[in-house]
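Run folding on both entries below.
>entry_1
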Amino acid sequence: MKLHKIITCFICVMIAGLLEVRAQGDQILDGIGETGLIARYVFEKDAKDWSRNNLHATIKGDAKFVKDELFKNVLSLSGDAYISLPSSALNNVESVSMVGWVKLNSTDIDQILFDFGKNKNTHAYLAPFGIGETKDFTAEVAKNSSKKYTLSSSVAEVSKDRWSHLVLVIDVPSKTIKTYINGVQVSLEEKIDLELSDVFNVESGEENKLYIGRSIAEDKPALDASIHDFRIYRIGLTDNQVKGIFENAFKKRDGVVNERKEPQDNLPEFSRTSPQLYNEFLTSVEDIEIQTAVGVLPRLPRTLEGTYKNGLKGPKVKVTWPAPTDNSEVLKTGTYTVTGSVAGTDLKPKATVNVVQIIAAEKPSRALEAFGLDAVNLDANANGQNTKFIENRDKFINTLAETDPDSFLYMFRNAFGQEQTAGAKPLGVWDTQETKLRGHASGHYLTAIAQAYASTGYDKELQQNFADKMKYMVNTLYDLSQMSGKAAEQGGEFNADPTTVPMGPGKEIYSSDLSEEGIRTDYWNWGEGFISAYPPDQFIMLEKGAVYGTEETKIWAPYYTLHKILAGLMDIYEVSGNKKALAVAEGMGDWVYARLSELPTEILISMWNRYIAGEFGGMNEAMARLYRITGKDAYLETARLFDNIKVFFGDANHSHGLAKNVDTFRGLHANQHIPQIVGALEMYRDSDQPEYFNVADNFWVKATKDYMYSIGGVAGARNPANAECFIAQPGTLYENGLSAGGQNETCATYNMLKLTRNLFLYEQRPELMDYYERGLYNHILASVAEDSPANTYHVPLRPGSKKSFGNPDMTGFTCCNGTALESSTKLQNSIYFKGADNKSLYVNLYVPSTLHWHEEKIKVTQETNFPKEDRTKLTIKGKGKFDLKLRVPGWATKGFVVKINGKEESVEATPGTYLTLSRKWKDGDTVALKMPFGFHLDPVMDQQNIASLFYGPILLAAQEDEPRTEWRKVNFDAENIGATIKGNPEELIFEIDGVIYKPFYDTYGRHSVYLDVDLD
């Protein structure tokens, strides 16, 4: 039987048993993470994009929505009717897959299902019944009129009057183009020489013509067919993924969130039993003995001392330990043994655990305080050149200064039914009319302009610009908030009680419909104090069980957006004293307390553990902070209501959870939970309950030891199938991580740095600042485009990857575009800390800068070319007695030399410590430090040969000239990995086997961050 007949029979069987196929509203579909989905058009009643990216299409001509036996409602195209997609839909893509259902009314040739490209010669199209002389199913990807790839299939005809599922995949890293019919691959072109930028404008989209139902060339006939569920993915779909999309369309269910399938892609596989990297020379690993309190899982070290062959001085050995999901092993006193494993070896190090009744421990106190942003200036380096810190700061500061506050207020005015100011334009991406997260960028904006105001004392005109923006934003938000819950006109009806908000006028349900026709604007019914860029329905729907999605019965993280707004208002209050900003925050705090305080614990547990819908950002942090500012107990109680009890404490009885060192966050959405942990630490600050500190500290250790990529990011799972999630099991980055859809969500690292910094204020563990330096240099600095403030969302780390940057003009924000505003306006905030008693000064980072320690009348200037040189000099102006605490980085294994006023000091400086210089400092004293850099490797924990190369703290990326599917292979000398590396340390440019390696923060083209390393 021919292939096409088999496919046709299969379709008949499927249809015979079908009752109804529902449109799926969730963004995670068919086990494919939402970060892989660009757009989805169901074509049931409109051409809206059902993904979260708001790439709504436009129907041209006389198209009709008609009833259909298989898909209920579909779009019928005839005559000159077609669909036009936004030209920006293919921005920042490396691979692309186009997927859709079509039922053709005729077998005429030259009919085009879709045609995407710059023009009729540079495009990608699919013709179900052939084109020109070819009468077979045909797809073509053309760079120009003479360079094209044509795929035809005569064995897999598309049937007239029957639904067919058609797919075109352009997978650039694997250098393949594939087509599929009804879940089966029917043609393949290999070893293509193609970048998507050859076919589409992937930078701005300006030239792109993206049509469904017609050809870019005007001389071709229009499509005579019905269409349904057309999707575009930013990844090259695999055979199994295409088959899954096809088969799942016949299942009466919604898309599966966080589906835990085995990874299905082309990531190279290696033997699990062969020792790799330094483990090849390993002969033994030490056993350890450790103590823990009843109920608390032991904190087992992730590295142990090892013995290597022939006296080789190898690194500490990475050990993987079992990761229990509860604390049942330690519920009574006694002794038990935990057996670990070392990747690629038979070695089984043992930990003897003594469980004792109680371990006395002092509650850590907040021993340090941060300097205000206005107290630290970023300086040019010792050669008078701008550093990467200044470059990135200025890109953001200068563009922020040009922004229009009315764009960031647009959806607030829209929600309250108020007229817009003349010329005001709404933001795009996640802040458009119908986006359920709209207003999130405005919160980030409030924080960013507050930080910019505090940081721009070097330019009074620029500083006044931000002062004016702050005042205007706050005045408008204040005026709107004062309208909530109050009559629109004298004597009119109103509802002042936040707990009795009625349904919208004419509505029979609480609805998240924000369309111009569907949005409610009856602010007088919303309860006093309410402020948001959308009405209160989403908050109420969350309480009633709503989940994440695009239908009007579903929601998108209402408390996440609110956290950004509250944090921004408090930031403005604290830098400028604007009392209206605080009043708006208090009003909404009261509104939230009124509603949440009435909910039972089981409802709160359900809410905060709902994927995305229950994402509340750092509401616990914000409410604890509001309590600290105002002293109102209700706000601290509100903060407690945001406890993620399941993650923090295991259950309502606080039986286990992170507080007792149980890993409860594996497989969860990373940036949904990291801000909650930041909030737990803030709760410790304000409530003095040790379990909150334990939650934060245990999480940090697990996240950085078991989930961290070399750039400092901690998310990027392909199991579960979502690049924004932690991997399914700790310590398995290679097995379950390195998602094809990208990894290391930039705002997750923003929050990890925030958590790290705050923990350090309590416990001055050098490993905290080692991590901070790693994430700051190798992710945050590396996340910004070369010539604009465009920045990364996810950072791909597979071989031959390329960063994608977005939002260069600050007009359309994802979550990471929002946190980028904050990151790059506060780059100086952790260089120095002071003792809470003003008797010590911590130097954490070696960055050219000037500190004004006003309380002590001390100025410290740091002159350096770091990291392009391995030394720095501190000059003290003023006089006084204090401890100077100097960070000795963990990577500084080649020495740490200290000179005071030119004389070398005899000090013991151990890598991974702080060195204390106690003396009465005089005006003009200098402290010169030298910390020779060295090359070292950072291997993936469960696949040691896959490793990143560092020079001191700086990650070096191989500069690639084409996409790759295999890891770049390199050989190093085990005794001295730098022996074969050539280059110029002063420019941080190196060469290995003819390939250039540069800092990841200076890498803008294709790169390989991880290498396949062999040691000789």
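>entry_2
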Amino acid sequence: MVKELQLRVNLIEEKKADILKKKASRKLGIDISDITTVKVLRKSIDARKKDIIFNYKVAVYINENLPEKPDYIFEYKDVSNAKEIHIIGFGPAGMYAALRCIELGYKPIVLERGKNVQDRRRDLRAINQEHFVNEDSNYCFGEGGAGTYSDGKLYTRSLKRGDVRRIFENLVYHGAAEDILIDAHPHIGTNKLPKIIQNIRENILKYGGEVHFDTRVTDFVIKNSKIQAIRLKNGNEMTVNSVILATGHSARDIYELLDKKDILLKAKSFAMGVRVEHPQEIIDQIQYSCDGQRDELLPAAAYSLVQQVNNRGVYSFCMCPGGFIVPAATANGEVVVNGMSPSRRNNKFANSGIVVELNIDKDFRKYENFGALKGLEFQKDLEKLAFNAGGKSQVAPAQRLTDFVEGNLSSSLNETSYQPGLKSSPLHSLLPKIIGGRLRKGFDAFGKKMHGYYTAEANIIGVESRTSSPVNIPRKENLEHPQLDGLYPCGEGGGYAGGIISAAMDGERCAEAAIANL
């Protein structure tokens, strides 16, 4: 017999051996010896009150063994000689599209403009130390996409778009820790994710798929409203049956190519702002109501904040406890910041994007002549502003949080995890009013919600501009582009995902659609 229970465990109890068995036996009114095992299905922490509680959803096996078979079995086939599906981009959407193609008996041919996970490291080092951005290999482009070296957070709200559990199980199949199956806010960590991504690539190759790095797509050959071939930067041309376009939200050249060829695009609302960085100890003390260091059983504390300011949402985005801020530019002449955390989340800083909702129909009047690319051009201009304010390198403009809100130039800045360095800049006056004005009011409100959050010990760093795509590539109900047969816009780049898991689910859906429509 198997019984599912909700169990609550306080911090003192959490340190005791077999506490879940003991609590389950009391709650069920049975002898503890009758419980074969307790399988944790879900785990979360409730720190809203001073007495911290661990919430468990468990399956209690009574005089019954735990099944040996996993919930999902992934059966990959040899597709060496099968019909081909071309996939542009090898981030989460592209990877899962490729894996799904193999499951369904089709050969994925993946074209990735960047390098593999090992070779990417040299280019990331060049950004951090030499301030040079390789436009094809950086924190956004390369094997695994933007998520590889910028955190690996797996939390998603996209529960209706596909089988979330299947995506998680597949990550475990390829080497992720089983903890991601039970944690309420699962996270792999930027130090562990590259190996998992390498395992996925090796599995694709093992079953006959192809993955081509340093292979940038520069043009589409179109005839009779159907995509016939792909042209590459090296001059080669590849004939195609179907193309899954999974290039991510930073592949501006793809948007510009489609726009130039009069392929239908739509401008899309998105959000922009800054990164805020606190000492992790401050966030721990606020969230856990503790003095000094947090208890060893507690993870680095996170937070989620939202405030309506002048009819727009101001909210935290991609919060990274125990993390680092990284330079996420994809071209020289721009500064973009993002956050990441190692698996242990043991760095001494906490950072989060704090961004403002922008309305594509109201906020970009000066950019209307750019049509569907108006949000993209606004995004570019803000990144150029940050580049110039930082001193025309990857040094980022920054300000103490209190100085930003109060409108003062910071005479000095706090220590930071951002490796290229910071330059004191008047971000309160440099940022456009639709962003800067709302951020200042938002931070003030956040300080009232989290006492201690509003502090001179925090820096704000600009700019957090790549939260999602400012462009939507439309598609029909069958997921094909309405004008171009054989093209399947996918994932974050198409405007259909907002993170690793939702992009992976969309990749699977696009693979299934491309195969169904052949």
